[in-house]
Inverse folding.
């Protein structure tokens, strides 16, 4: 392992990309493809969700199979906020993050006492518990999920237009990626990456490993909650399927395709997977076969994911 | 008499049917080099695991630097001033020597919190300056930028010591620092330990008897989980029971 280190020479590229992203809704509208603005928002939201899992899995080394629970809880928190008259994104989003983060704190505090396959199983169990809880909650729509009453606003501005909403999502993703990038190179990032490599050695250097792991897990959960709240606003529905373990699996596949432990791994994975789904689903309902083949190809020929193909090789 | 730096009382541990440690009494005075010897399987590493808090004892107590640390976890004992090196080299092979030692400096309570999420570590000049200081102490200056995985075995052992030392311990537990070393490396390690002994109390677990008798102020002998004697190196060498139990083949 080497510590994560951003490639400074790509700053120009990043700025260029951000510029393109800001202009994307206008470009799509100009081409008469407004439908794809919503699709682009969806990609960015999943990019955020996958990146939050990548923090936990790729940087923290915690193989969580219950990550979708935090994602779904964020969606429900947003739906409940809107129903109770809280509509400003500056309240809705932090609240969704807080609720998801709190649940992550509970799950992490118990499950991080286990290791390996037990950790995978216990996070899976917690995720499924949350799923069944939501399904059985009649007040929250049970199986049908909870429809949102409108969309959140931002400081008085409506986000009903797909372009405005896309920009809100872009801002959330941009800020989150900036935070994750800084975190990875800050003291905290070094500690969690070193714990991923050798937790006993870190404990022997005086680091309270459990606290670092738990903090990383909670940050990941809160960011997943943010993504969930955005998704509910995009689709107008907080669905129980967002919490289900298959959703955790989808996020995992995104991270693996994109590149475990690479800052942009989650982002690239979400982009590749959702675009592939969009294209293949146009040809056949059996598009999962294509996805499976892609996953096999990646695991066999580019096991570090798409991000590794772009990364500057060191030494 | 002043209070001992480390005082272990009646420490016992049983793994299923095996009594790994039987009422071990063990004291380390501040400033001494205290060697712990014993045949393979005597429980030396198990004992170190218990002193450092990697494992917790069934019964008995451990006092360190005037505190009861019996129930403290490993990282709390490190914060109290205990550091250890490992029998099998245990460094971050993918990191440079400098990053390895800087990480150890970062772990110290007086180096500030590591719950910092924004400022890049590389801007933390003090961390790296201090790391360089420990690297120099162990004679690794010219390898500072080398990946730990590319170091020669002896240099990896030295790095291991630099990391332990960077936690600024009151007591350093060295678990077989000469393990796997050739004669030249051993000689270098003996010199390093002699040098370290001037600034920190050392508990030395070692098989290399020449090194033990050269370095140690006192020697304790552990056989089958029992501490059979603690005395000066000369007295231990002469003790018939020790010779029978342990030095038999070497004597």
């Amino acid at each position: 392992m080497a510590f994560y280190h951003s490639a400074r020479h790509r700053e120009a590229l990043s700025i260029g990309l951000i510029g393109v992203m800001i202009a994307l809704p206008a470009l799509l509208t100009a081409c008469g493809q407004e439908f794809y603005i919503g699709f682009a928002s969806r990609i960015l939201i999943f990019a955020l969700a996958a990146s939050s899992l990548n923090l936990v899995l790729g940087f923290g080394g915690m193989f969580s199979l219950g990550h979708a629970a935090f994602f779904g809880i964020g969606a429900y928190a947003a739906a409940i906020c809107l129903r109770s008259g809280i509509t400003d994104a500056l309240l809705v989003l932090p609240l969704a993050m807080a609720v998801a983060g709190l649940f992550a704190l509970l799950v992490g505090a118990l499950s991080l006492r286990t290791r390996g396959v037990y950790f995978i199983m216990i996070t899976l169990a917690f995720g499924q518990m949350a799923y069944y809880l939501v399904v059985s909650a009649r007040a929250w729509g049970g199986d049908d999920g909870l429809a949102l009453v409108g969309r959140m606003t931002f400081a008085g501005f409506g986000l009903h237009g797909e372009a405005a909403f896309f920009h809100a999502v872009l801002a959330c993703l941009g800020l989150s990626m900036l935070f994750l990038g800084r975190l990875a190179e800050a003291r905290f990032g070094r500690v969690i990456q070193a714990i991923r490599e050798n937790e006993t050695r870190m404990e022997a250097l005086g680091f309270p490993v459990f606290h670092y792991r738990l903090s990383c897990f909670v940050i990941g959960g809160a960011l997943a909650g943010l993504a969930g709240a955005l998704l509910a606003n995009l689709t107008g529905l907080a669905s129980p399927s967002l919490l289900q373990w298959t959703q955790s699996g989808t996020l995992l596949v995104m991270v693996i395709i994109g590149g475990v432990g690479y800052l942009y791994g989650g982002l690239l994975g979400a982009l590749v997977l959702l675009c592939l789904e969009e294209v293949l689903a146009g040809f056949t309902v059996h598009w999962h076969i294509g996805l499976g083949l892609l996953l096999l190809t990646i695991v066999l020929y580019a096991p570090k994911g798409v991000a590794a193909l772009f990364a500057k090789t060191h030494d | 008499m002043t209070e001992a730096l480390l005082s272990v009382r009646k420490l016992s541990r049983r793994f299923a049917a095996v009594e790994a440690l039987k009422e071990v009494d063990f004291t380390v005075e501040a400033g001494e080099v205290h060697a712990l010897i014993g045949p393979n399987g005597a429980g030396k590493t198990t004992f170190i695991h218990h002193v450092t808090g990697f494992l917790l004892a069934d019964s008995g107590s451990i006092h360190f630097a005037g505190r009861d640390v019996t129930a403290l976890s490993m990282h709390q004992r490190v914060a109290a001033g205990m550091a250890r090196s490992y029998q099998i080299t245990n460094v971050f092979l993918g990191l440079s020597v400098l990053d390895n030692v800087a990480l150890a400096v970062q772990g110290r309570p007086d180096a500030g919190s590591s719950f910092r999420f924004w400022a890049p570590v590389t801007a933390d000049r003090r961390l790296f300056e201090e790391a360089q200081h420990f690297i120099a102490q162990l004679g690794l200056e010219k390898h500072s930028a080398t990946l730990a995985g590319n170091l020669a075995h002896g240099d990896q052992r030295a790095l291991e010591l630099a990391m332990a030392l960077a936690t600024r311990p009151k007591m350093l537990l060295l678990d077989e620092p000469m393990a796997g070393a050739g004669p030249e490396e051993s000689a270098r390690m003996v010199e390093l330990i002699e040098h370290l002994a001037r600034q920190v109390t050392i508990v030395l677990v070692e098989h290399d008897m020449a090194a033990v008798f050269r370095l140690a102020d006192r020697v304790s002998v552990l056989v089958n989980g029992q501490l059979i004697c603690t005395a000066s190196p000369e007295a231990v060498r002469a003790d018939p029971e020790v010779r029978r139990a342990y030095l038999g083949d070497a004597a």
